[in-house]
Amino acid sequence: MIPPLVMQLLDSLAALLLLLSFAMLAQRRIVTLVDLFALQGAVLCAATLLLAWRTGEVNLYLSAALTLSVKVIALPRLLHAMIRRLGVYWDTDPLLNISGTMLVGVPIVVFAFGLAQPISALASTATRSAIGIAIAVILLAFLTMITRRKAMSQVIGFLSMENGLFFGAMCASYGMPMIVELGVALDVLVAMLVLGVFFFQIREQFDSLDLDRLESRREAP
Amino acid sequence: MRPIDWFTQALAVAVALAAAPLFLGWVNQCRAWLQNRRAASLWQPYLGLRKLLHKDPVIAREASPLFRAAPYVVFAAMLAAAAVIPSMGTRLPMGAAADAIVLVGLFATARVFLALAAMDVGTPFGTLGARREMMVGFLAEPALLMVVFVASLISATTALPVISEHLALRPLELSPSLAFTGVAFTMVLLAENARIPIDNPATHLELTMIHEAMVLEYSGRHLALMEFAASLKLLNYACIGFALFLPWGSATGRSGPLALALALPALGAKLALAGAALATIETVSAKLRVFRAPEFLATAFLLAVLGMLVHLLLGD
Fold first, then answer.
1. Is residue A217 part of a domain?
2. Is A106 close to B302, i.e. CB distance below 8 A?
3. Within a domain: A216
């Protein structure tokens, strides 16, 4: 017995989200990182639309529209503009080399899948099997933040984590209440603006967006 | 076993032997067209082999018997592999002798002998090529095994003909795990057959070559065997790919001679497509630095592992 085409498509999109997380983990160019983030948002949007069509939940249509406008259009444009103005195009030497990072990612995915099993058993949604992928996306975004030096790529990791959270909520309970989603979307936008201001401040103080330098800061005597 | 199964078996080996240089010629021709060069004839690899077979081999004074034996071992391993890969029919009497893991082992045997022979004479180029080949090999092998394991998990067996039959007969569905492993397998194929992102088959520039460096000391019929084995290896990999990812068209189950007669043109069409795709990949991608090869193969391994994990989670 094979599941209906919509569910197959949803599963494929979930797998694609996971793949994009790994692609972001491996990407050295920040410009491409932003594009990958936008692509992840687009995949998330497509998955939300499909699920909305399958379940008939109006909330999910709104959520998809929100994802499209904030994560596919607004944030990537903001990030691109910031990259141009700050002139940070590369995050060349991550703390761990790329193949090492990707191999660390595999046990993380295994861990996430194990973690999701009891949750999936309790959930009653059609998409419950993909909860593991949502948790994996969140943890991989964490890993991206940990292994990068530049503030820019750490912020993109943070935003990608938010994608994972949305996807998890969608899989586990067909989305969060609308008011929460709106609040989160607004939060992310505001956070991005505030962080943008921070970037400029950090660069002015340290002549670099390399966050390691923050640690060597001492109080002036 | 029915007589037709033995006929299928004999046909599979005969077609592999006959088609391997032709497939290589086709890939070279596509590559030349894509690069705006005038293509050599489709039969060029055969002419090359004939020329080499007519020449006397020159062997270094220091060469040990292993150096002479290696071409035969490598060729035999590739021929044995061709016998257990279901390229046209899935009822292969020899298929029970070796499952997919043994198949990977056969490739490993060939690689070890090739590398030993390359180091045997003691020229620096041979040693360099052997070292690089072993580096690529030890990274590509787990990726290939993972690809095989995903297909094995789906069909609950490690016998390649049975896997192929199961995949061909099951209802059509979107399968992210097979898509991931398909990409991973393509990457392994490129690396293992000394194709462009890892090695350039058309160059004798010492800094970049891997496979060519290893067979540098060979001449005459030994070189002919080595080159024949290399083209057979490419064909074998392509046929493994068809068995796992494009299993439709080959004769399955208890089908008769008609299915087998249809399987031959199907294989030809698949090979023509795969050759064109391979040439396209090689034309659009640049050769990686040797030190980036581990990254390339780690990605292949990762994709295969992701395919397996996604299969276990989503159960497609």
1. no
2. yes
3. no
Structural domain range at position A166: 5-211
Q: pTM (2 decimals)?
A: 0.90
How far, in Å, are A34, A71, B66, B227, B296 from residue B74 at the CA level? 47, 54, 12, 10, 26
Q: Which of B310, B311, B312 to mutate to test the interface with A (most CBs of A within 10 A)?
A: B310
- The rounded distance, in Å, linking the Cα atoms of B196 and B281 is 8
A118 belongs to a structural domain: yes
State yes or no: ipTM above 0.85.
Answer: no
CB contact under 8 A, A99 and B176: no
For B130-159, how does the pLDDT look when each residue is reduced to its tens digit (9 = 90+)?
999 999 999 999 999 999 999 999 988 899
Q: Cβ distance A42 to A50 under 8 Å?
A: no
Residue A218 lies in a domain: no
Tell me if A129 and B315 make a contact (CB, 8 A cut-off).
yes
Q: DSSP state, B310?
A: H
Contacts of B173 in chain A (CB under 8 A): 2-3, 8
Q: What is the DSSP string of B101-146?
A: HHHHHHHHHHHHHHHHHHHHS--HHHHHHHHHHHHHHHHHHHHHHH
